[in-house]
Amino acid sequence: MNQVDPASCQRVLEKPRKVLFHYGEGLRYEQMPAGSRLIYGPPPLPAIADVDGAITRALDHPLDSPPLSACLRPGMKVTIAFDDLCVPLPAMRRPDLRQRVIEQVLERLAAAGVDDIHLIAAISVHRRMTPSELRGILGRRIFNAFHPHRLYNHDAEDPDNILSLGRTAAGEVVEINRRAMESDLLIYVNINIASQSGGHKAIPTGLGTYHSLRHHHNPGTMMQSRSYMDPPHSALHHSVERMGRLVEQQLKVFRIETVVNNASLPWPVDFMGRPVWTHSAFDRAVLQGSRLVTSITPTGLKRAVYARIQAPYGLLAIHAGATEAVHPRTLEAVYRQHAVAVQGQADVVVAGIPYLGPYSVNSIMNPVLVTCLGLGYFFNFYRGKPLLRRGGVFILLHPLYEQFHPVHHPSYIDFYRRVLPQTTDPAQIEARFEEEFATDPRYIELYRHSYAFHGVHALYAWYWACHGLAHAGRVIAVCSPHSRAAQVMGFHTAPNLAAALEQAQEVVGPHPAITSYQTPPYLLCDVS
């Protein structure tokens, strides 16, 4: 079994060195002082060469389940649900794994005489995927055969197509897509790049409603969860596991989970995901050209170009069958690819925030999403204990534009302009504003019939950062000192990393232990 060599992913600088950071749609060199520790996402593990053969084996030899073909009979009702465009990031080079898996599933359904088939994008309260985006994930043949009447987005606000299953033993309301629940078989196709996804989380979240989500997407549960990337110790995952088990008491589920490796950047810019000490002369030349181009290219044009990037991910693992047999195998593969053994916590953690997050695909990384990505996702890339010590300083590098996508993020605009100036406290936000944003008819209409995130999603993005915000003694953004966005969100500012590190000493004292990490590619710090 291939394993990541921790020494290949990290180094302590013997002397000051300029380090490349993501900086929104651009790149930025900043000097890291001697003694700083640099951590990079592990290099991609070898991919499975015969992808179609691996899919066939998974479907024909599932875990704790008969083969898929043996689960089928003529005339049955089957629903295929699949993860939306939030994963992977950047998008996968075509054909997408979901397409390749679903094509083989459809072949077996046809051979068994099953023709009552629906395909549902499990968007939860994310924005609807456009027809072009659905076609990109599933391919033209599937799209043309099923869209729009049998291929569509889940609608968490459609009262006629939501079914209540009752409550878990802990009192959590479970509401699920009616078509899925009334099927003879639900086949769920997952694509996994992080340990927080998949398993029982997929169905009650992706095919659920606000009334279910609010039981685990709330500040109290998230604060108890510690790292969202460590499911066995996450209150959030414990909640969705209870919900998922209730679903599977009433519905037959055939789970198909895939894991991709860390090949998240295409040539010739793949060097940006590799340690700086491995860069070749060619890499440095490409970097200089990239920095020049990004510095003179308008932001809107850069976003359009970045949206076309497709990463050459390789299939690392695929398992099918029963959820509680499949998901541990998925997590094992994820940890094998992403886990890095790290000695000791840091007083200061530095992270460059890139142009792309799970909720800004084909969109804009607004200030709330920068917070969600930095203090929600990046901060939580650990198991056990955080990389940042309690009361330490988290430094993020991002220009923090006050820019929002008006179609995708209307509730984010109102949340940023009206709520955050009053309070940044997640518990107060939940108590004072959640019901309003969750039930506002305008937001519901835009979620259902346009391409807007659900009204409550802006609050959820902020909640996602609540553990990181509470854990850090100070958050410093390297951006314009006059950034209104930093002020609104309660961040300190510094014009460059040197000034940010000097300011950090006000909190953590002189001679701090400094760690910087780069992502993508992804990593998971096992801190000892």
Q: In brief, what are we looking at here?
A:
With 528 residues, the protein is α/β, with parallel strands linked by helices. It has 20 helices and 22 strands.
Strand order of the largest sheet: 1-4-21-16-18-19-20
- The CATH class of the largest domain is Alpha Beta
How would you sum up the global shape? globular
- The average pLDDT score comes to 95
CATH homologous superfamily of the largest domain?
LarA, C-terminal domain
CATH architecture of the largest domain: Alpha-Beta Complex
Distance between the ends: 23 Å
Uncertain segments are: none
Global structural class: alpha/beta
Counting structural domains, the number is 2
Strand content: 15-25%
Helical region count? 20
How many E-type strands?
Answer: 22
Cα-based radius of gyration, to the nearest Å: 22 Å
Measured as a percent range, the helix fraction is 25-40%
CATH topology of the largest domain: 2-enoyl-CoA Hydratase, Chain A, domain 1
